[in-house]
Predict the structure.
Amino acid sequence: MLNVKAYAAKEISGKLEKFNYQLPEINPEQVDIKVHYCGICHSDLSMLNNEWGNTQYPFVPGHEIVGEVYAIGSAVKNLKAGDFVGLGWFSQSCMHCNTCMSGDHHLCGDKEQTIVERHGGFANYVRSHWSWAIPLPVGINMAKAGPLLCGGITVFNPIMSAGVLPTDTVGVIGIGGLGHMAIKFLQKWGCEVVAFSSHPDKKKQILQMGASRVINSKDDEDLARIEDSLDFILNTTNVNLDWNAYLSILTKKGRLHNVGAILQPMQIPAMNLLAGEKSVASSPLGSPALTRKMLKFCIRHEIYPTVEEFAMEDVNKAMNHLEMGKARYRVVLKV
């Protein structure tokens, strides 16, 4: 048995309070991770407020975890106590279905999610299957690495799956926690990056991140001036937009890729897709193998999210900071 000290909410939108619980004896394929840092993702807020209808209370948030292996099960061969690892949205997959055997563990129909029906990383320890405890590259900045395990892989996966080329001109909609990392990835990928933002006060910061141009997403004339010019657009927002306008910005055979958790149906005009042989796609995070590849890319190009650090005991202050839209651009808790 392992005694865990955590922060949990007892009800919808409740305050996070100190919460102790016990993990049972570790099974052969599990690892226990001593948490050093844990990022706060907007999904933590969505789960706290039960926006998706699947939150169980008491609820311990936290799925952007970096730390060190504390204990391993008897069948774990790729990790040992003391290794530095990261854990994101997923904490287990079945390891035997066709999807897992094809390398797409994040699409497994029997996957376990780190903060769904179990306790997450706003704690001193967290448990996962060995396959999702991602080894961290030597020299990585632990204080900034946590958000890469969720937000980072969420925007890196589409770059790979869509076959984005270094010669492409690409767009990023919404320059927040996800979007600012997407700009950094795409700029180092070699792309010309156009950022769409409704906050003119962010323009200087967005250009410093690597964007070559910033378009006011609320200005129809600004949008119209770049019609038929982008090869790929990544939407990171969670609200419905004028999708026809963005499809018109895509060039022939372009792709609009969504990673935002939009709760309303997206109205996509079929004729705009047909006329230009365009496509709309979406994706969740990525596999363990792709996450490892992303971390190598980050180390090679010194890519990290822009973070604000809070102490774990200030978790409610940090959550409120994010909910009020004040985060620039990811929030990380230090244990």
About this structure: DSSP finds eleven helices and 17 strands in the chain. The chain has two domains: 2-150+286-334, 152-282.
